[in-house]
């Protein structure tokens, strides 16, 4: 119900109603819009549920209000159970057990967001944080990098990835000086690592990198194929049938429907600047 409301609020922002929110950071969906007017029912949210949803969208913060990392994006609601059902994602729990507290019996129920996050940064930040935006040495060494963010991801906050890329642009001196060696692809409708769980050719970033490094052809877009039965566990079985292909454009450009042809065929889309 929450997902349907978010999609209804922002699906058409790109000019095409297709079940995808192409630019979630600019989605102004407010879960209070579906708060119950009277008694609780399956078609509305209680005041407590609205408050919880707002906190999930907002992301974790220190006690002084400083963001720790971005929250889950509008459109991602069908994946929330992956992170918030009975206990936190096992990777997160084991990180605190093994690296932060070095205590296999540590209980996540004792977790204090402000105190323990600061402790984690102090003890492990220099080993695990990849947030330095100064990639000039990498560029000067001839490196190329493709950065991927999935807008429906739970494990890797996508807005955090796009903000990092913006900080790289700032250090490098602007988009042009960044895009000649680093490109970001933010994938609508993807809940994790696109192509990884089902079929690598569904989002062939490796081929794009190969063309860039070996032939000097910088990727302006990578085609993303969505399959029936997609999700984090889809790779455990036979890949489902492809029901949609869509170009994922090099950030900040976004895909736009040309106005004719099958809306589920990538050939009928082009890459344009945001808002165009």
Given the structure, what is the number of helices? 9
Overall form: globular
Helix content: 25-40%
Note the beta-strand portion.
5-15%
Low-confidence segments, given as residue ranges, are none
What is the gyration radius calculated from CA atoms?
A: 20 Å
User: Quick one: how many beta strands?
Assistant: 6
Describe the structure.
With 276 residues, the protein is α+β, with helices and mostly antiparallel strands. The protein is built from nine helices and six strands, in the order ααααααβααβαββββ. A two-stranded parallel sheet has the order 1-2. The chain starts with a helix and ends with a strand.
Characteristic terms for this protein:
276 residues, alpha+beta, 32% helix, two-stranded parallel ribbon, two-stranded antiparallel sheet
In short:
The chain is of the alpha+beta class. Helices cover 32% and strands 13% of the residues. It has helices at residues 2-10, 47-58, 81-84, 90-100, 113-128, 136-140, 158-172, 175-179, 205-215, and strands spanning 145-150, 182-187, 221-227, 242-249, 254-257, 269-272.
How does the SSE layout of this entry go?
Blueprint: H1 2-10, H2 47-58, H3 81-84, H4 90-100, H5 113-128, H6 136-140, E1 145-150, H7 158-172, H8 175-179, E2 182-187, H9 205-215, E3 221-227, E4 242-249, E5 254-257, E6 269-272
Parallel strand pairs: 1-2
Antiparallel strand pairs: 3-4, 5-6
């Amino acid at each position: 119900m929450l997902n349907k409301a978010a999609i209804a609020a922002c699906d058409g922002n790109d000019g095409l109603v297709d079940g995808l929110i192409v630019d979630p950071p600019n989605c102004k969906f407010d879960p209070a819009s579906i708060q119950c007017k009277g008694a609780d029912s399956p078609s509305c949210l209680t005041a407590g549920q609205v408050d919880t949803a707002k906190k999930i969208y907002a992301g974790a913060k220190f006690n002084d209000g400083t963001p720790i990392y971005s929250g889950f994006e509008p459109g991602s609601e069908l994946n929330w159970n992956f992170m918030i059902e009975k206990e936190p994602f096992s990777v997160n729990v084991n990180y605190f057990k093994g690296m932060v507290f070095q205590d296999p019996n540590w209980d996540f129920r004792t977790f204090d967001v402000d105190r323990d996050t600061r402790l984690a940064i102090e003890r492990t930040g220099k080993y695990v944080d990849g947030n330095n935006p100064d990639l000039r040495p990498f560029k000067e060494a001839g490196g190329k990098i493709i950065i991927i963010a999935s807008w429906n991801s739970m494990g890797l906050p996508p807005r955090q990835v796009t903000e990092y890329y913006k900080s790289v642009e700032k250090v490098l001196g602007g988009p042009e000086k960044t895009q000649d060696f680093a490109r970001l692809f933010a994938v609508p409708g993807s809940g994790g690592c696109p192509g990884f769980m089902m079929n690598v050719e569904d989002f062939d970033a490796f081929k794009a990198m190969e063309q860039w490094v070996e032939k000097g052809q910088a990727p302006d877009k990578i085609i993303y194929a969505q399959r029936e039965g997609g999700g984090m566990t889809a790779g455990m079985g036979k890949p489902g049938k492809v029901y949609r292909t869509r170009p994922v454009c090099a950030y900040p450009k976004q895909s736009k429907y040309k106005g004719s042809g099958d809306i589920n065929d990538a050939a009928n889309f082009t890459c344009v600047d945001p808002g165009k």
